[in-house]
Structure prediction request, 95 residues.
Amino acid sequence: MPEEHPDTTLLLQRKDPQTANSHPASATRPQIDQYSLEVTTLGSAKDFLLADWRAFAARHAQESPMQDPEWLRGYFADELENISTYLLYKSGRIC
Prediction:
C-alpha cells in the first residue's frame, strides 16, 4: 500500500449508471474511489513501489521489458536520477 501524501491524493466520485437517472430518493450513495499518484525517480524508488510495479507488470505487461523496473535500472544505469516514474494507485492498488 502506498504511503499517504496529502498533496497527491485525489478523491473521485463515480456515478453508478444504474442509479444515475433514477429518482433521488431511490438512489444509493455514490461510490468514492481514492486515487494517489506516487512520483519518484527510478533510482530513488522505494522497495514497496518496485514490488507493486513488478506485480502489476507481471499481470499486464509480461512481454515488455519497458515495464520491468529492474531491466530499466540496468539499461539506464547512468541516468537513474534523471528518469521519473509515476505510479497511479486506486483504492490502494496500482492501476
In short: The beta strands are 9-14, 31-41, 84-90, 93-94. Confidence is low (pLDDT under 50) at residues 4-11.
